[in-house]
Amino acid sequence: MVLIISSKRDHSTSEVIRWLRHFKKPFLRLNEEDKVILESLTYNNFTFQFEGKTYSLNDFDSVWYRRGNFNLDIFPVDVDEESSIIDMYGKTESEEVQNFIHNLLNKKRSINNRNHHHVNKLDVLSYCESNGLINFPFLVTQSKQEIVSFVQDNGHPIISKALRIPFIYYTSENTFASYSHRINDEEIMSLPERFTPTFFQKYIPKKYEIRTFFFDSSFFSMVIFSQKNAQTKIDFRKYDHKKPNRKAPFKLPRWYEEKVLGLMEHFKLDCASFDTIICKEGSYNLIDVNPIGQFGMVSYPCNYSLEKKIANYL
What fold characterizes domain 206-313? Predict the structure, then answer.
């Protein structure tokens, strides 16, 4: 049986499950919204109850951590003013249990693991700068004067983007998402003297950009011709549905794959999506790594059948 830890909104999980059904491979999908009850946990095994059935670690041949968490049900207590403190204690205890459960799951044949599901963008950029994977300056600051100095030293244009990606927030009526944004002088001067720590970087004029899905030590890449469309030039995720960007399969040079493979090993990633900008002069700049990034957008246009490959692996 395959254990899948995901979320209700994740379409890629559902597509992989279609292939598991085709292969007649039993599976259990636990979404982060689902509550499970821990029955027992020992050095090398655990059992839990979900929807009236009891499962053991030994029931699963392989595990795919897609996103979310192993969501242990915290039973509320009714002790009036002390209840919030006791509940908080229960949540901190459960977090330790969850981390250990994910370590046990990683001993199975697995794809990704929650304990390595996030990499710090600044750590990634620091690694890339030291290993020849980027050649552009950045700044994180709370000071308007520091931005002014950054522009004076590096020139225009500069952009700003979220450090922890992707930032997406859902409500019952709307979806809010962050995008890369080009900053002009007027916007800089309108800022207060102090603000939330914010990431800025020198804008990289691109020849084109590459989205790559890394899985099972292989690279599946797609070139995106977004640079000639004003709507997608800064951030291709501002999709132009009336005139979509052209996309095509792409083969990264071997030297670059070897450098990225070193990055994956450094951050203990066996599966991730990453973005590369190829500058007009031909240099390669790795700008983002996301262990739980979407891969359907690469799979379908390029006929990679990544969903089938993942199901086969599991």
Answer: D-amino Acid Aminotransferase; Chain A, domain 1 (3.30.470)
With beta carbons less than 8 A apart as the criterion, state whether 94 and 74 touch: yes
Distance (Å, whole) CA 26 – CA 20: 7
Distance (Å, whole) CA 74 – CA 89: 10
Q: What is the pTM of this model?
A: 0.86
Yes or no: say if 312 and 306 are a contact pair by the CB < 8 Å rule.
no
Torsion of CA 283, 154, 191, 288, to 10 degrees: 20
C-alpha to C-alpha distance for 178 and 238, rounded to whole angstroms: 10
Where in the chain are all domains bearing CATH 3.30.470.20? 206-313
DSSP string, 5-53: EE-TT-HHHHHHHHHHHHTT--EEEEETT--BEEEEE-SS-EEEEETTE
Q: What is the mean pLDDT of each run of 10 residues along the chain (314 residues)?
A: 94 96 97 92 93 95 92 67 69 85 92 87 92 88 91 86 76 79 86 90 87 95 78 59 77 96 94 91 90 90 96 96
Helix, strand, coil percent content, the chain, rounded in steps of 5 = 30, 30, 35
| Short-list 49, 6, 51, 3, CA closest to 25 | 3
- The span from the CA of 254 to the CA of 153, in Å, is 34
